[in-house]
TrEMBL record:
Protein name listed in UniProt: YALI0F14751p
InterPro entries in alphabetical order: C-CAP_CF_C-like, CAP/MinC_C, TBCC, Tubulin-bd_cofactor_C_dom
GO CC, alphabetical: cytoplasm
Record-linked PANTHER family: TUBULIN FOLDING COFACTOR C, TUBULIN-SPECIFIC CHAPERONE C
Family per record: Belongs to the TBCC family.
Domain C-CAP/cofactor C-like: 102-243
GO BP term (any one): post-chaperonin tubulin folding pathway
Length: 277
C-alpha cells in the first residue's frame, strides 16, 4: 500500500524537475525520455492503489511530458528513431522499492527498443536483440510499421494516426493510448487500449479478454492466421471499462483483407485499408 498523496506529490516534483532540467540543458532528450519511462513504470506498478478518477490525470501528465520532450528533441535535431538502450532503475525512493520483488538487488535493468517520429514512411524491424525486453512505438503518422519477428515482454503504443502497426509477439501486456484512424495487428498476452478512435484491431490475446476504455468506433478481428505465426489465441470478449451507461463502442470485423495483405507482405499501399481512408 502506498500513500497516494505522497505518491502524487513525488510524481509532480519529478515531472517539474525533468522539464526544468531540459530547459536548462542539464539533461538531453534521451535522458529525459528514460526518466519519463521510469515514472510511467512506477505508475503502472502502483495502478491498483491509485483512485480511478485520478488515472486520467496521471496519463495526461505523462503524455504532456512526452510531448514536451519531443519538442526539445526536435529543436536539438535529436530524433528518437530506431534506438536501443539499457535503462537502470535506482532503488532509492519509496515508489521504486515497490517495483522490486524479494531477492532483487538495489537496481533493475531493462532494455528498450524505441520506434518513433516517423511520417509517411515504411518501417521494418524484423527481429530484436534477446536482451531487449520492451518496445515503445510513438508519434507515428501515415506510416506502416512491421515488427513481425521481434519478441518483447511489454509494449507501449502511443500517439499513432493514419498508420498500420504490426507487432508479433509481446509475451506480456500492450498499453495503447491515443490511436486514431489506424490498424493494429498485435499478438500479446494482455491488451489495453485507452482514448482511441476509429481503430481496426486484429489481435491474438492470451488473456482472451482485450480491455478498452474511453474509445470510440473500434472494431476487433482475429490475428491473421497465415501459417507463419504460431500459438495464436482467439479473444472471446471485449471488456469496456468506460462509463457503464455509454453505448457499445466496438464491433466484430472480418480479417480477410488484412490477412491477404499480411500474407503477401505489408507495404505503404495497404494504408488504403484504414478505417477512414
Amino acid at each position: 500500500m502506498i500513500d497516494t498523496n505522497e505518491f502524487y506529490v513525488d510524481f509532480k516534483k519529478e515531472i517539474q524537475d525533468i522539464r526544468q532540467s531540459l530547459d536548462a540543458k542539464a539533461i538531453a532528450p534521451p535522458q529525459a525520455l528514460e526518466r519519463q519511462d521510469v515514472l510511467a513504470s512506477k505508475c503502472r506498478h502502483n495502478l491498483m492503489y491509485l483512485p480511478v478518477r485520478d488515472q486520467d490525470t496521471y496519463n495526461g501528465d505523462l503524455r504532456d511530458l512526452l510531448t514536451f520532450i519531443r519538442i526539445h528533441a526536435t529543436q536539438s535535431k535529436a530524433k528518437f528513431k530506431f534506438s536501443h538502450r539499457k535503462l537502470t532503475l535506482k532503488g532509492d525512493t519509496k515508489a521504486t522499492k515497490h517495483m522490486l520483488t524479494k531477492g532483487d538487488t538495489s537496481q533493475e535493468e531493462e532494455s528498450c527498443d524505441i520506434v518513433s517520429d516517423f511520417n509517411d514512411t515504411f518501417v521494418s524491424k524484423p527481429t530484436n536483440d534477446h536482451s531487449v525486453t520492451k518496445v515503445k512505438v510513438f508519434n507515428i503518422s501515415k506510416s506502416v510499421v512491421v515488427m513481425d519477428q521481434a519478441t518483447y515482454s511489454t509494449a507501449e503504443i502511443d500517439d499513432i494516426s493514419d498508420s498500420i502497426i504490426f507487432l508479433y509477439r509481446v509475451n506480456g501486456p500492450v498499453y495503447i493510448n491515443c490511436v486514431t484512424n489506424s490498424i493494429l495487428v498485435l499478438a500479446c498476452h494482455q491488451f489495453r487500449m485507452h482514448k482511441s478512435d476509429s481503430v481496426s484491431t486484429f489481435v491474438s490475446c492470451s488473456s482472451k479478454r482485450p480491455i478498452i476504455e474511453n474509445c470510440t468506433s473500434v472494431t476487433f478481428g482475429d490475428f491473421p492466421d497465415t501459417g507463419s505465426f504460431n500459438s495464436l489465441v482467439a479473444w472471446e470478449a471485449i471488456d469496456d471499462f468506460s462509463n457503464l451507461s455509454s453505448d457499445r463502442v466496438w464491433t466484430r470485423k472480418d480479417n480477410g483483407e488484412v490477412k491477404r495483405a499480411v500474407e503477401r507482405g505489408l507495404n505503404k499501399d495497404d494504408l488504403v485499408l484504414l478505417p477512414s481512408h
